[in-house]
Amino acid sequence: MPSSHTLGPHDVAAKFCATLVDEWVRCGVRHAVVAPGSRSTPLALALASREEIHLDVFHDERAAAFAAHGIGLATGIPAILLCSSGTAAAHFHAAVIEAHQSAVPMIICTADRPPELRDVGAPQTIDQTKLYGNAVRWFCDPGVADLSIAHSWRSTAAHAFAAATGGLPGPVHLNLPFREPLVGEPGGPDDLPPRHESTAILTGSTQLEDRVLAEIAALISARHGLIVAGRGCGDPNRVTSLAESLGWPVLADARSGLRTGRSGHSRLTVTAFDSILRHLPFAAGNQPDVVVHLGEAPASKVLARWLAELEAVQIHIAALPTWRDPDANIDIHVTADATNVCASLIERVRSTEARWLDGWMDAERAAQAAMSSVLESASATTLSEPATARLLGRSLPAGGNLIVSSSMPIRDVEWYASILGETAVYSNRGANGIDGVIATAIGVAVATAAPTFVLIGDVAFLHDSTALVGLVQREVDLRIVLVDNDGGGIFSFLPQANSLGSERFEQLFGTPHGVDLVALAAAHSIPVTAVGSAAEFVDALVKPGPSLVLVRSDRAENVVVHATVNAAVADALM
User: Quick one: pLDDT at residue 263?
Assistant: First the structure.
């Protein structure tokens, strides 16, 4: 490497950034998301110069951050997320929180002013030290690049990758100050500090001792039980095999991978659990002795409330060392790979009598038939929100992705979408926010190069409208299903809808926006198809994206449709 007197500070900064990127490429990073700015020039140029890195540019920092989150969500490998200094970095915060609470890897690089420009009124300068607080796995501000410590640059990059992908994956924050001039020459690959081939990358593999497995097996063998499976539940085949060995049903949410009818997992899967458990005689007469929770919890409050009131032994198994027990009803917390635990338990357990499983599966079949009767007969002429979720689930191609917004869409998919094909389902349920949904979907689509569908409401769509900028220029097959009920539809299900007058409720909760969403999409050159029936909806879905399928809905009528479905399920279970 040339001596320091041959390099200006701008060249040292360029070499520093080139070294970081080279080490990240070595670790397996293949995506970078950049929000444009001046102060971040050295790292932006280093990322753009590597053909191994797929680089996406977003005008809006919040959209950029959620796209990086989507990439990590889909691949398990962090994207490099870069912005300039100042409030640009603050706009990353919502996505950082979601990545933190969803355990999604991400490497955030915020450019900064050098120390001499801080606290002196320099423009576009804020305090970026530990800007994201405890929401990051590691924070590092290495200072202005100094050639005398070039030997440490690769270690910094490797540390960031390891912290982002370790036992508890999540975001990492590097705050990188750069002095002007910002464009330098890093030199050739041979001029970079040498790679350390022995650099350790942390992993999160865990395995239980035989003693612990034996204790769990004794608790669950030959007893009435349930498996509740969510994101992170492990290999669906292993979960199904364990359920078969126990003679238990699996209450599976949409993100579990256990709702496909093509691989046979559905034979033990109960997807209508929310409607079934609303029927009090069934809920009271089919209480388990033990519940095994795998991964994250479903969205259903009905299920959560029922589980909280049980006297059953409840065991939670997840690979990540996070405490998931909001109702304080988990008796045993197990941190281990759920796939390995299920595989190890299969030969150690005994089944309960067949009538236990038969009762749940009979209820599932009756509930599904009742849902179909109500929703399919009406959707021939009028497409409701539950029918939209159900039809979407049945229409997804094998190998595709579905990204579902929080609020009503994730609930409608969880409650009504019984068949999802071989489709990966994602939803930002770490913080349960409605922001960044489209940008997250773009990240997933970029990372997987697969057809990617989004189910989103109008308010969430407006929250993330900046993600539409440049969408038609991106090489992604993104098909957005937009349910427009002109406001916050989920609030119509809450007590406020009945306890407040109509005018006050609309002012504070219904919040009609009156935006012409067709015109908004057209402003971004996104093709829009407005549909009113099931046939029109299915036809519109097959067209490659970027595209938008618009389903209009009435908030008050939507409450009636949900109540009608639940009543039909209750009648079917009588």
Answer: 45
